[in-house]
Amino acid sequence: MDLNKLTVLETFEGLRDKKFSSEEITKSCLKQIESFNGQIKAFITINEDGAILQAKAVDKKIKNKSPLSPLAGIPVAVKDLFCTKDLRSTAASKILENYIPPYDATVVEKIRTGDGVIIGKANLDEFGMGNSGEKSGFFPTHNPWDLERVPGGSSSGSAAATASDMCIYALGTDTGGSIRQPASFCNVTGLKVSYGRVSRYGVMAMTSSLDTIGPITKNVADAAFVLQQIAGYDKKDSTTPAEKVDDYLKEIKKDVKGLKIGLPKEYFIEGLDEEVRNVVLAAAKKFEDMGAEVVDVSLPHTDLAVAVYYIICPSEVSSNMARYDGIRYGLSKRDGKDLLDIYLNTKSSGFGDEVKRRIMIGTYALSAGYYDAYYKKAMQVRTLVKQDFDKTFSDVDVILTPVSPALAWKMGENMSDPLKEYLADVFTIPASLAGICGLAIPAGLVGGLPVGVQLLGKRFDEKTILRAGYQYQLATDWHQQKPNIK
Amino acid sequence: MKLSKSEIEHIAKLARLNLSEDEAKLYSQQLSDILDYVEKLQAVDTSGVEETSQVTGLTNIMREDKIEESGISDELVASSFQNSNGYIKVPKIL
Predict the structure, then answer these.
(1) pLDDT tens-digit profile of A333-364?
(2) Could you say which of A28, A154, A164, A194 is catalytic?
(3) Helix A305-320 vs helix A353-366: angle between axes, to the nearest 10 degrees?
(4) Which residues of chain B from 4 to 63 reach within 8 Å of chain A, CB to CB?
(5) Per the domain annotation, does A350 fall within a domain?
(6) Residue A101 maps to which CATH number?
(7) How many domains does chain A have?
(8) What residues make up the domain containing A134?
(9) Is the pLDDT of residue A152 over 90?
(10) pLDDT tens digits, residue range A249-264?
(11) What number is the ipTM of this complex?
């Protein structure tokens, strides 16, 4: 049996039943990485020694019958945007190429104190800015389903590693679709949590008013299980309310009879690939067969969301990237004549093209005289987008939509046209602006490429979208389809 | 809306970025395209609409004004390019 192909729950049980050791499963993942990371390039750093050491410690605990934490011994790929103590954390940026953090992000700390096995740091679009995985400052990640196509992004390595069984599960971040879209392109399950559900302490900030953290897994039950371990209040992140964390694994067992699912007409527009549309409609039909009620709904401000996002995101980026100034950490170019030269030379040589572009847009939008016309206006329209969802959710439990209007595209296709690439996030951005939760699950293959659907839920109602997704996966086997890598 | 070369240079200066001639030209075109696209927001009537800056419903999280040791201050300072005796060294400013 290939242990690296197991799910989180299978690993959890297998370790306790002593079917295999943590060292065996860890080595199985490392072997898969060794065989295929050369072509897929899912990892920036592979934590081989650290992972084996951690696995052995877990095996010792099992042998001694010591109590075991839920995520103990399970290999996880962590997006390289999370700070990991004593393990290089780069954000896929040259500006942090050699940065070794002296502390763990809260979520990483939870995994480490629970004896989780960090197998490596996954590639991404630099600082999370991008939706193709091509904008890593080091090298692009390739889609395991077709190496000439993008895996999606920005959690490109997390999705590609999970899809190609280089880990048992992964952690990503989602600001405008960065978990959901790569999950869809790579045929894995991706959960974007409600804003504030999971602590972001120690995760490098991109768009602070939108950034979220969530799992990328091989099925929905695993996502429910991992969320249970990482969700909740953190005194180090003041955007985490003390909202109750549900018993997700229990909640997902309830069937979907009577569940009301909305199909928003604004998501079935011109520009949506015909075959993607068919996949979403087939999923809607499946939910009906399972006893859910599917109704038409409307989210009238949908087509404004991308414009709102590309003001709010760059504005906050321009502020968040200011800290990389060559003084306190990271790259520092000292070849100039004064302090100003350190700033200029460090930023100019350390940041990639897309990061600079967003810093420029944001700096312009926030510069004297433009605040009202751009940032303030965007925050007002954001309210309208949010109200659309609030209104619709007073009538339905879940909203079903496509994740991406198109299939995974060929590498290089959108590189010279940033606006075209931005528009590819049209179906994931609105939920980010509203701060609600969203789940991407595999729902079909078109010409050998995966197509996911998106289930959106109310703020802090992860249990309902996880339940719908889990029940869908009981009735279908799309999530069990694997890429043929060799 | 077309951003001129001098506007691009001004923004770059505010953002502390050095742009090459080619970058300035490219960004002038790309930023203009993006700003044209977001222009569609101006047509939306937002009179009386509150701004949404975040959605947690939380405001002003206070804590007691009490010092807590991070335990890693030496390591944090050691992350800097130059440091000495627990301080980060920077070039002279004035």
Answers:
(1) 999 999 999 999 999 999 999 999 999 999 99
(2) A154
(3) 100
(4) 8, 11-12, 14-19, 23, 27, 30-31, 33-35, 37-38, 40-42, 44, 46, 49-58, 61, 63
(5) no
(6) 3.90.1300.10
(7) 1
(8) 3-261+396-480
(9) yes
(10) 999 999 999 999 999 9
(11) 0.96
